[in-house]
Design brief:
Blueprint: E1 2-13, E2 16-22, E3 25-27, E4 31-35, H1 42-49, E5 57-62, E6 65-66, H2 72-78, E7 80-83, H3 95-106, H4 121-133, H5 149-162, E8 167-171, H6 179-192, E9 197-201, H7 205-211, E10 214-219, E11 222-227, H8 229-233, H9 236-241
Helix pairs in contact: 3-4, 3-5, 5-6
Amino acid sequence: MNILETKGLFHDYGGLEVLFDVNLQVEEGERHAIIGPNGAGKTTLFNTITGTCCPTQGKVFFKGKDITGFPPHKLTRLGMGRSFQLTSTIARMVTFQNIRLAILSKKGIRFNIFHKVDKMTDVNQETLEIIKRINLEPEALVPASLLSYGKHRSLEISMALATNPDLILLDEPTAGMSRDETHNAVEMIKKLTAGKTVVIIEHDMDVIFSLADRITVLHYGKILATGSPDEIRSNQAVKDAYLGQTVV
């Protein structure tokens, strides 16, 4: 069963076509990677799926429902979570507060002076459990702005997962990380997304092939190929699109 599907998706920016007739199917429970050279349209595809922008043509379906053009907050309520290529934490808030804010969003509780969030035992307990799972207990009371880059990215990913989504979209989750940080991030993603459906954009092929069940290759806004990691490794058209780079 497909949890996510796009049909005939097109998008342009001021007449500049970025996506061309993209028909993507993501099966429930799989980890599906989207790869392609810079400028292939990967982030634009994510943006049209997650409501950041509206396609110029075509439809997006989530759990069989037409969600084309739905705003991000509505998609969160339906069970879709997303992390961004650039971190989207609140710099002045500590780790605990950032994750708690994501949980409050999931529960539909608006953060304001009329809600005594410090007294919401269930919310605070859930926040602590997530912090333990991502090994950020020592940084629980550290402002996001003071976290190392790798831990900042881990926080941002965990915020997307804190909404307990049925589908999580990760945009370049290991971008800018060291080798050790990347390894830790991959292990964290595996652990936190067990049983979830994941769609991931990533340039690091080691990350892709260690995480993905299926891979879709975008090239100049079109789907060039979709298949298992082994099928993508051996696909000559994919090798050509990467200008001879080794896709292993």
